[in-house]
Amino acid sequence: MKIGELSARTGVSIRSIRYYEQQGLLTPVRQENGYREYSPFAEEQVRTIQLYLNLGLSTEQIAGFLHCVLQNKESFCKEVFPVYRQKLAEIEEQIKLLQSIKSNLEERMQSIVEEQQSHAKEEG
To answer: Where is the HTH merR-type domain positioned along the sequence (predicted)?
Structure first.
């Protein structure tokens, strides 16, 4: 199948499919005229790549285990669990940072409200 058909079947842009190819996640056959020809299996590959991207993984992380998960159940791919563990740790750090920022904003807002109230009492 051609890249346009793969894009239509998966709902993934041609640009993204080309990017997956550049990252080594997809390997089409090149015809003599230079056109990419994708196997019927490419549709499943693209959907699997999308699944992992939606979990917040990078294409580099996905490349580390994609071949395995396309051939086996995810639970049989020893490369997957450490990537999940690392991603979860990153998310927990991001949550801590966001909670800290939220707290700082709430404190600043409270300080502004208190200052406005204090100023209103002085004028009143």
So the answer is: 1-68
70-83 mean pLDDT? 92
Residue with tokens 């709430």: 106
The helix (H) or strand (E) run that includes residue 52 is helix 41-54
Torsion of Cα atoms, 18 then 50 then 24 then 29, to 10°: -60
Q: How many CB atoms lie within 10 A of CB 20?
A: 23
Check: CB of residue 51 under 8 Å from CB of residue 71. Answer: no
Question: What are the backbone angles phi and psi of residue 30, rounded to the nearest 5°?
Answer: -95, 125
CB within 8 Å of 112: residues ≥ 6 apart: none
Higher pLDDT, 30 or 9: 9
Largest CA-CA distance found in the chain, in angstroms, rounded: 85
| Fold exhibited by the domain 1-77 | Multidrug-efflux Transporter Regulator; Chain: A; Domain 2 (1.10.1660)
